[in-house]
Amino acid sequence: MSEQKKTVRIESRTDRWRFVCPRGHRSWEPTNHHFWCASCARAQGVDGEFHELHDRKTGDLRERESVRLVTPVGPYDRDLDGGDQT
Asked: What is the pTM of this model?
C-alpha cells in the first residue's frame, strides 16, 4: 500500500463529525477489522456493518485498512494500526 494511512481519533468530536458511516451517521464503532453503525443497525432492513468510512471533508471513502484508529492510550488495533503489544 503506497498511500499513507489517515489517522482518525475515535474519541475526538471533530473526527466523529468528519468521518461518518456511508449513510452519514457518527454513531459508528470499529470492530473485528470493519466498522459497525448503531444508527444503521436500528433502521429496519439496514445492516449496521460496513467497511469504508466517508470523509466528509474530502469526499473520500476510506477502507478500514487505510485508516489508523487512535484512542488516547494508543492505536485501536495494533495488528492493523502498528505498534507492538508490550
From this structure: 0.81
